[in-house]
Amino acid sequence: MPHQPLPTNNQAGILEPPPGSDSLYPEPRRLFENHPIHLRELRPLNGQSILSARQFSLAQVVELCKLAAVLEKVEITPYHPLAGKIVVTAFFEASTRTRTSFESAVLRLDGKIISIPEARITGAAKGESLADIGEMFNAYCDLVILRHTETDAPEQILGRLRVPLINAGNGTGEHPTQALADWYALLKWNNALAAPPVPGTPKLQLGILGTPGSMRAVKSFLLLALRFKDHISRVTVISEMADPFGQDLSEDLAGAGIDYAVTNDIQHHLDQLDVIYMNSIAFLGDSYKTLDARFKLNRSSPLKPGAVILHPLARKEELSTDLDDTPHNLYFSQAHGAVFIRQALLTAVLGRIDRLPNQVHTVD
Ligand code: CP
Predict the structure, then answer these.
(1) Are residues 182 and 330 in the same domain?
(2) Domain range spanning residue 112?
(3) How many domains does the chain have?
(4) Residue 209: beta bridge partners?
(5) Is the CB of 334 under 6 A from ligand 1?
(6) Is 101 in the pocket of ligand 1 (CB under 6 A)?
(7) SS3 call for 209
(8) How far apart, in whole angstroms, are the C-alpha atoms of residue 172 and residue 130?
(9) Is residue 15 part of a domain?
């Protein structure tokens, strides 16, 4: 049966990039046009807790990005994919993007939200354990999205939680859905990343300004980068630390067999990088710290023409606002696309990929 066109957000007059800013908002359509979504890759996510970027295969990341691209172009709410599902967003640490984009994703899919925007409105303020809070959540919802300052918070709540948990950032641990948002932005920017590399095509030089071992978003980004290693010629980590990885991540890098280098000399490397991932804020011990703050980018930085910058935000002085209206800015696309990749993930984890409108081109 021919696929009928879906109502799009273009027709609805929303979610379109501002005029003249196409280079900052890459077109999602090319990711799914003529490329059906392979549901068999997404079905294993049904009922799974998402704790680490290590959990995702390359095929799962690509199929999630294709589904996100559909959801970015389609007005999905009338199809009610999450009807009857209740999601708790439990944020025990500050957030602008992650909680709001998850909540937007649930609402756009016609699910319902119980929002806990800060720890002090829960029993944690009275010393209640995360395990006991998790036991309560079992009765209240179908899925929990947790952000916490403590790296072992997911482990603590999973002591009693029986519904799936999505880790929305745990101390210096991981931020796996941020990594999905990062790679969704990159796949829209360069669709070739969604397919095996064509022999002879130049590979990407990936740069990281930051310390992956201490910065959860950078760590999860790097872990997903290893899935795309066939598209990457080299990863250059520019950090103040002599060992910016820690043992686990060093083992991941060695296991992937990717070519990588560590340096503290930004000037020597910047003009060779195609993709630059940067961050400076890390929650270390009991407070926010600014790491690697001497590595700054601005409009005068010797960036390679065509290079793009990713930043999970919030930013400080390391990323000048004078780059915002240049084609190097992929960080706004990265932030805006997060709502759609989170929609895709929620649809898969809550077992609702069969409730997508039948006009969406899927295969099993
Ligand atoms: N990228 C990110 O995690 O941002 P928030 O801290 O605002 O959620």
Answers:
(1) yes
(2) 23-175+337-354
(3) 2
(4) 238, 278
(5) no
(6) no
(7) strand
(8) 18
(9) no
